[in-house]
Specification:
- The protein is mainly beta.
- It has one domain: Deoxyuridine 5'-Triphosphate Nucleotidohydrolase, Chain A (Distorted Sandwich).
- The protein is built from two helices and nine strands.
- The protein has helices spanning 41-47, 104-107; strands spanning 2-4, 11-13, 18-22, 33-38, 49-51, 56-58, 67-72, 78-80, 85-93.
- It has a four-stranded antiparallel beta sheet, with no helix packed on it. Strands 3-7-5 form a three-stranded antiparallel beta sheet. The protein has a two-stranded antiparallel sheet with strand order 2-8.
- The longest helix is centred in the middle third of the chain and has 7 residues, at 41-47.
- It starts with a strand and ends in a 19-residue tail after the last helix.
- The model has no long low-confidence stretch (mean pLDDT 90).
Length: 126
């Protein structure tokens, strides 16, 4: 769903400026789900405005007002006005993993081996 700004007065954002924009929304997300805040593609393309920590996560136990952290990556100042669509919200299920404590020796064993190994960014080729 689209998320709109809920402001008493417009907020001007200089290039590379960031702002916490209130939405006036309070809601309860059921356990086992999370809210994901995502940028709007049109704002990103035309103005360079995006969600700073995209995707932002809203935990199911959060009860405060939803506010969106925006950043202006554009070359011109941008003004956010009340009612402007500033982000999108997706409600999604959350999977919880189980962690097993181990030692470095076990990590290096064949049980943990993979073709990629410990290779990081760019290690899987093009």
């Amino acid at each position: 769903m689209d998320i709109r700004a809920f402001l008493q007065e417009p907020v001007s954002m200089a290039p590379l400026g960031r702002a916490l924009i209130p939405t006036g929304l309070f809601f309860e997300i059921p356990p086992g789900y999370e809210g994901q805040i995502r940028p709007r593609s049109g704002l990103a393309l035309r103005q360079g405005l995006t969600v700073l920590n995209a995707p932002g996560t809203i935990d199911s136990d959060y009860r405060g007002e939803l506010a969106i952290i925006l950043i202006n990556l554009g070359a011109e100042p941008f003004t956010v006005k009340s009612g402007d669509r500033i982000a999108q919200l997706v409600i999604a299920p959350v999977s919880r993993g189980a962690l097993t404590e181990t030692t470095a020796d076990r990590y290096a064993s064949a049980v943990w081996a993979s073709q990629r190994g410990t290779g990081g960014f760019g290690s899987t080729g093009v």
